[in-house]
Hints:
The structure holds 2 protein chains of 2 kinds. Chain A is built from 13 helices and 12 strands. By secondary structure, chain A is α+β, with helices and mostly antiparallel strands.
Amino acid sequence: xxxxxxxLRGLIARPLRTLLTILGIALAVAGFVALTGLTAxxxxxxxxxxxxxxxxxxxxxxxxxxxxxxxxxxxxGSGLSAVPDVEAVSGVLLNITTAxxxxxxxxxxxxxxxxxxxxxxxxxGRIPAPGDQWPVILGESIxxxxxxxxxxxxxxxxxxxxxxxxxSFSSVLNQNSAxxxxxxxxxxxxxxxxxxxxxxxxxxxxxxxDVAVARTRLMAxxxxxxxxxTEQFANSIRIFDLLQAIAQTISLAVMAMASVAVANTxxxxxxxxxxxxxxxxxxxxxxxxxxxxxxxxGVFMSAAGGVIGIILGALAMEMAAKTKFAAGLIVxxxxxxxxxxxxxxxxxxxxxxALYPAWRATRLLPADALRRI
Amino acid sequence: xxxxxxxxxxxxxxxxxxIVAVDDVSLAIEDDETVAxxxxxxxxxxxxxxxxxxxxRPTRGEVRFEGRAVNGRAxxxxxxxxxxxxxxxxFFLLQSLSxxxxxxxxxxxxxxxxxxxxxxxxxxxxxxxxxxxxxxxPAELSGGExxxxxxxxxxxxxxxxLVADEPTGxxxxxxxQSVMSIIGNVHREFGTAVIVxxxxxxxxxxxxxxxxxxxGRIRSDSRVAAISTPTPASRTR
Lengths: 373, 237
Ligand SMILES: Nc1ncnc2c1ncn2[C@@H]1O[C@H](COP(=O)(O)OP(=O)(O)OP(=O)(O)O)[C@@H](O)[C@H]1O
Ligand SMILES: [Mg+2]
């Protein structure tokens, strides 16, 4: 036998309690991984969604609260186009609404003739042509989810749209979006003279340095506005900070509860095993060794809970992302950092929860412990 | 021959002074003695034994082991680990461990290497006729086997002092006799000092010294020529 035999037997001797504690820790860790992963995923999906359509830089309102609330005036466009190395700029209007009242969807209004249409990979149909009445191109995922084909009608922002094409995208955001002509969407939203953002395409060939230079020039052309690459744009949207703060606060609370659960379980285990601890003390086990015994039990449960929790969290994210209402807005994103955070918690909070019961166990006089049978 | 344990004016109260379990006990025990502590139920025998092993803390007075005052749980644990083997009336075996592991658990802090511990445990089991019981749990052993296992465990670290609280209390007459002869043999073979708490006069008669307790005090303390008086040659180990 080794130092681990006794703690392991202790855990096995009370299988139900051990399992319930591990489950408690696992759920806390799963909550943390899922919550932080989903907020990070939303942000990530916006960045990659804008990237995909050929834009190198994005001009948006400084400190915009959310994706849709950013406003840039039409008048900015000519100044931006005049910047050297800029191939084209496109004012884009974004809106989050429901499709047929059944699923959340991002509507993107693109101007006719924009470079954005060029890279589109159509699976069916065509891009909107002049003379179309309320045409829309649906992302493949949302089309499948809503069971729509070219020629069908879909209601977006209380307006029936004719589906003229279905396109495939690599980003989840775009897979679940509806792309419509800019003018119609501006009318529907009464935002005729503004865009959500300008997407800027630079001249090819392009290296990192070119992007940096162009960015500085664009900032000069659009003073007071945010100019950045798509990732910077996603990071600048303040609602993501808010989401992250909420997610982190909830996860911290959940994790705190989990450590209390560990402490409680171990306290009960220690109480129940007062006698065993008395015997070990009588055999000459030092208080430190006894402390370690209890701590090892705590670490075992935390580690098992942590691993199971990360797996559960990843599964929960997958499931959340698959619900119709979350499609496209929620993207599972299991970052290494959130796994590290969860494991840090597990290896700090678990033993911390075990510390008090363990300390109590060593305070007891062996004679008192042995009297309690 | 040298002094092993020394209690000087030791007292132990419970219930914040309302119960005086042990009062002003002074007792010196040599490293080659066999001592029987006798007395009526509730007279304070177990409490004295607990104080001798540092399982309990005296309210008054001092306990010295091998000439040094021992204070604190960690210090007493170290003394017990290397110097004292304890046999309890109710065996106090760990139910989640096998017979062999019950001995190994006592070796854990003292003998490095799982293999070494395993070998020592098997030696001890064999010595007490339990070789074939090594993998059984205490619940699967008979009363006598359990008590022999408890003795084997107490001897695991080759203690200087073997302490037993009513070692025969829960055994039938025949088994009691064999347990007592085992304890007598331990004394002779290993030169281990023995303190036995008992209210069995036959058991007490096997010891070289008889200390009678009543109401927490020593009533009498006498050395007698016991059957198991050690022979000088057997004291080398
Ligand atoms: N932890 C304790 N709390 C309160 N009273 C105690 C405690 N331990 C012992 N006592 C009391 O101290 C007295 C002596 O107890 P002790 O167990 O030493 O007696 P004993 O001689 O071993 O008796 P027995 O032969 O029945 O085992 C008893 O009155 C007992 O009730
Ligand atoms: Mg007693």
